[in-house]
């Protein structure tokens, strides 16, 4: 599996010159120049985000699931339909099911809602079948019009069909149960399909059931990309970054290409899943207070002319007075020395314990806003950089048309833009992490590294936006530095 | 589909009318229109509960997909109960949601609602204020539920001291029902109810 995965990554690298516009940032290999080629085995040591995964199409997943279904149905001598009910109920833990079957088959079937809880209440079913009265539609029917599940509750086929249609139209498939009161026996797939007549209903049923199977499978996950049909498979127990091979090739929306296997939130290293959930809830709760920050315009701190942020870079230059300043704190950019980028750091007020409750609340809000502002800002920058990338593409197109170099000559700009996105993405997710960190030396170290990463990212962003005047070697050097800072931070703090 | 719904309701209507519960005046259904899409239900407050002696009217709406989907039921009569909204009469009961089965009938629904009045489920509340009182001040809850039964459902127990507190608020220009809700919500603490009403 590892080799396979590595091969795939190499394939992308090889195709660098083929389709430059769609090169994804995740496939940029800044180490390639270091002569470090013996990386096959220690990929995960080198890259803290490395994960083994497959990107599968629906048919491939169907085949995969069917192997389990067949294997279980053969070992327990049950229909594939019942095997599906068992696998779905037990999160596809094949060996578990077989073990449970050997210990106590009947309790396995009862717990999986294949058989009814004793005592069997088949009398009412028999009664209705004999009298020919279906208790759901209250019509008299001939005996062959009736159908029943293992519980013996008997209803006419038209009613079963209608029951299925109503359930399916509400999105229910694997969870459809018997129509009798207090009976929780599930209708297996073959039973449903034998009574369901409308082709579109059958199709929807099968689609919904497939969704349920994927969702109940611990190693499978639908790609969260919009309209993307791919399914990821990974055996990783921990939250890892995986990237969909399908939507990567068709669009540049990056955020949804990365997601962790654990929680379904967009990929969020170095922050862990629980912290991330807490943070997103907090952001939603405090959105009103934080709203005022999200404005796209600010006044130049020197000449007070209103300027709009148009690129992702936080290094702003006033078009009127040429003053260089920081978008986030409006401070002089030069003061944000390259060594220590103070802007990313929030200084806890040490006197907080002595102040009133109100002041504490104000302080708490201030602290939250400090982190939120940066979180929001980087998220906006990410979106703006997508536009920047589009602009770069157009620029290059123009250059190539005017015979000023070929696409390959300008390839490095895409690599740089991709890497910038990757770095900024990680940077964005360092803020929730920092917000929930206890004050202390570890937090200081984290914020020091965060500040360094931020400084390098801003530098890179600036160089990309002013690519025409930036030397290529300079740019590639900056890419290398930024990625190193990113990986260092993740190595030190990614505790997944 | 609609055909099955109408057939079923007609039949169930007869079933309820003939049932022994009707004979004991415990439950009742009436037609509201000719199309069988809306009915009026009635249940008697069960004995040995704060609802005893009261008569509770229900609105029953029959969806086109009945009986494959449950009927939509709510209390018309105002009632103080953890699983029933004191404002809208909306009911939190599993068989009216995902535990509904097509073989269930109006009679099952009415009897289940009556059972709900006997045994509330405060951990699955519809009305959080009532549920909290039910758990934290059970005696206060009983008194309040009894009082509401008297006022809105024709129950037998008149409670002069509670009426007295309500009068204190209506004298200040507060509408009677609003005064009752505020007092009930604040465990009949006149001061806190006043504070809430005038804040
Ligand atoms: Zn039938
Ligand atoms: Zn059954
Ligand atoms: Zn995708
Ligand atoms: Zn997560
Ligand atoms: Zn200026
Ligand atoms: Zn700053």
TrEMBL record, chain A:
Keywords: Coiled coil, Metal-binding, Nucleus, Repeat, Transferase, Ubl conjugation pathway, Zinc, Zinc-finger. The keyword Transferase applies. GO terms for molecular function: ubiquitin protein ligase activity; zinc ion binding. It holds the Pfam family IBR_1. It is found in: Nucleus. Residues 1-45 are annotated as: Disordered. It catalyses: [E2 ubiquitin-conjugating enzyme]-S-ubiquitinyl-L-cysteine + [acceptor protein]-L-lysine = [E2 ubiquitin-conjugating enzyme]-L-cysteine + [acceptor protein]-N(6)-ubiquitinyl-L-lysine. One of its GO terms (cellular component) is nucleus. Residues 450-492 form a coiled coil. It comes from the Eukaryota. Its EC number is 2.3.2.31. Belongs to the RBR family. Ariadne subfamily. This is RBR-type E3 ubiquitin transferase.
TrEMBL record, chain B:
Residues 161-199 form the UBA domain. Signal peptide: none annotated. Its EC number is 2.3.2.23. PROSITE patterns: UBA, UBC_1, UBC_2. Keywords: ATP-binding, Nucleotide-binding, Transferase, Ubl conjugation pathway. InterPro entries: UBA, UBA-like_sf, UBC, UBCD4_UBA, UBQ-conjugating_AS, UBQ-conjugating_enzyme/RWD. The keyword ATP-binding applies. GO terms for molecular function: ATP binding; ubiquitin conjugating enzyme activity. The keyword Glycoprotein does not apply. Residues 4-154 form the UBC core domain. Pfam families: UQ_con. The active site is at residue 92. PANTHER family: UBIQUITIN-CONJUGATING ENZYME E2. Belongs to the ubiquitin-conjugating enzyme family. This is E2 ubiquitin-conjugating enzyme. It comes from Frieseomelitta varia.
